Amino acid sequence: MAGSVNKVILVGNLGRDPETRNTQSGSKIVNLAIATSDTWNDRNSGERRERTEWHRVVIFNERVGEVAERYLRKGRKVYIEGELRTRKWTDQQGVEKYTTEVVIDRFRGNLVLLDGQRSGGDDGGYNDGGYNDGGSNFGGQQAGPANRGGNNGGMGGGNGWDSSAGHDQGLDDEIPF
């Protein structure tokens, strides 16, 4: 058994369009703001209450970042799988600060588009789907960029998108979650 596990799974909505920036070496980094909400009835007043948590998500994986840039817009529902990282940085006044983020790293992590909402742009013919560059394939329906390179864990060696990975072509049933 492993000594520890650092894995985060979020299902939420984008609070703004993805923000992309490039490093000096030319690598692409995509930042997302994901909102998760919890609702309940207050025991004393009977009123409906809601609490929203905001999560910073940073995508270092080039392919996942391309999918996020192309298909994600404010309001889209997404499934994110990554790991928590806290980094230290210094602001303009010289004060050290800490930020905790969910990171989709170069060879680990998952991004799945969960809704069919479109904001007017070309969706490339994809209905729902996701991109997996790690071990498991959690995806929407068969369509979309689902798993690159088969079962090699996203470590290269594939020759493109395999949209049928992990999908039994003989089953028409959808499994409700």
Automatic annotation (TrEMBL):
InterPro entries according to UniProt: NA-bd_OB-fold, Primosome_PriB/ssb, ssDNA-bd
Keywords per UniProt: DNA damage, DNA recombination, DNA repair, DNA replication, DNA-binding
GO molecular function terms listed in the Swiss-Prot or TrEMBL record: DNA binding
DNA-binding positions: 54-60
Residue ranges, compositional bias (Gly residues): 118-142, 150-160
Chain positions covered by the region annotation Disordered: 118-177
HAMAP family: SSB
Protein's recorded name: Single-stranded DNA-binding protein
Species whose genome carries this gene: Bombella pollinis
